[in-house]
Write a structure and sequence with these properties.
By secondary structure, the chain is α+β, with helices and mostly antiparallel strands. 30% of the residues lie in helices and 26% in strands. α4 packs across α6 and α4 (123-145) crosses α13 (401-409). Homodimer.
């Protein structure tokens, strides 16, 4: 009977066959321990010489990443985190791998990134992708269960939602076009049709940054909600992030263990999250000796980390100055210098994972903001239509998938959180 490794518990004591690869092996003169992987998990196979000398010699000659069918009996194994192993009585080699470049010794990050197509096979990278997959599944579950509809904004756009020059330009036949920075504006249009929506897709930033938090291509989850004020949106963000964390804890314990993730930190992630205004954050930083920050300036990674260190869970920084935020954000009535927005900062130095705001819903105000930003009204006529015809208060946010994966898995660089990351000066493989 052919099974996968993740089904082993159902077949304890039974004879089965698994299609797999040899991750690595170790052994002695009497026994070979084969570390097997099949894409669903990792399991040890045991080959004992006194049971079958020919099979033992065959196992002894296996090379790293050789593909094969391995047959044997599933046994419980309390010493293993997985809980089961196979007593092997048959090996059928499919393809003998020779000279596999990623050996068990240590390798530098550039070498590993050059071989990303193979590095994905490693135990830790497999665990990171499992966590990413769970976050993707849990995202769909959360929004579908709460009455949201998924919409798919275009990747090719004629304008910039963020109003920056960090755009990838291309030609759309005889017109200028850009790779999308965000699906937000289109999600707003869909919210006016469906009430509550979310998009989940790739976004691109031509930002020449080499920090551990930045990718050129990354995935964003972007809900938009009609009739939701800023405070309503913050509550959704809290519920969503808490849900993601608890789902990863429930379904990815083995993966978190492989990554040596301190789960006690994640277990404390429960709503509500603490909040601090931008103004309070500046004062706090200045008290902590950050003389480089003044009111009106944006925060960098050291500033966000210092703020996050005061809390044992994610923290909202609210009401940023309007000059450093996007044109579409609603003015804060209690302080016209600021807007109704918030960034959610993850603990442990992982930085901003969510940016959100209440959107301007007044036609004249939005038109003025577009003009002041120098964006040109023509490209935004359709966006202004949303304010011409039945405008309502509405809010939304965007969560960066890769930064969230990095935080929950505990890896230090976002390059490990995308299957094939696109970084500055890296387009291969």
């Amino acid at each position: 009977m052919k099974i996968s490794i993740n089904q082993a518990a159902k077949y304890e004591g039974q004879q089965v066959t698994i299609g797999c690869w040899l991750l690595q092996k170790r052994g002695s003169g009497k026994i070979q321990f084969l570390q097997l992987r099949d894409g669903t998990g990792f399991m040890q196979g045991i080959v004992v010489k006194e049971n079958d000398a020919d099979l033992f010699e065959k196992a002894k000659g296996l090379t790293q990443e050789t593909s094969m069918y391995v047959s044997g009996t599933i046994k419980a194994d309390d010493r293993s985190d997985f809980g089961y192993e196979m007593e092997v009585d048959g090996i059928e080699v499919i393809h003998a791998s020779e000279g596999y470049p990623i050996t068990p010794k240590a390798h530098g990050p550039e070498f590993l990134m050059d071989n990303r197509h193979l590095w994905l096979r490693s135990k830790k990278q497999h665990a990171v992708m499992n966590i990413r997959n769970q976050i993707i599944k849990s995202t769909h579950d959360f929004f579908f269960e709460n009455g949201y509809k998924k919409i798919d904004p275009p990747i090719l756009t004629s304008s910039s939602p963020e109003g920056t020059t960090e755009l990838f330009h291309t030609k759309y036949f005889d017109e200028d076009a850009y790779l999308s920075q965000s699906g937000q504006l289109y999600a707003e249009a869909a919210a006016m049709a469906h009430g509550k929506v979310f998009s989940f897709g790739p976004t691109f930033r031509a930002e020449k940054s080499k920090t551990r938090r930045h990718l050129i291509e990354f995935w964003m989850i972007e809900p938009e909600m009609a009739f939701y004020k800023h405070e309503d949106s913050l509550e959704v963000q809290e519920q969503y992030v808490e849900y993601l964390v608890q789902q990863v804890l429930e379904h990815c314990r083995l993966d978190l263990g492989i990554l040596d993730r301190d789960t006690s930190v994640l277990e404390k992630i429960r709503a509500p999250f603490p909040r601090i205004t931008y103004t309070e954050a500046v004062e706090l930083l200045q008290e902590k000796g950050f003389d480089d920050i003044e009111w009106g300036e944006d925060f960098g990674a050291p500033h966000e980390t210092e703020i996050a260190n005061h809390f044992d869970k994610p923290v909202f920084i609210t009401n940023y100055p309007k000059e450093i935020k996007s044109f579409y954000m609603e003015e804060n009535p209690e302080d016209p210098r600021t807007v109704l927005c918030a960034d959610l900062i993850a603990p442990e130095g992982y930085g901003e994972i969510i940016g959100g705001s209440e959107r301007i819903h007044d036609y004249d105000t939005l038109k003025q903001k577009i003009e002041e930003s120098g964006l040109g009204l023509e490209a935004y006529e359709w966006y202004l239509d949303l304010r011409r015809y039945g405008s309502v208060p509405h809010s939304g946010f965007g969560l960066g998938l890769e930064r969230t994966v990095a935080w929950l898995s505990g890896v230090q660089h976002v390059r490990e959180t995308a299957p094939f990351p696109r970084l500055l000066n890296r387009l291969y493989p």
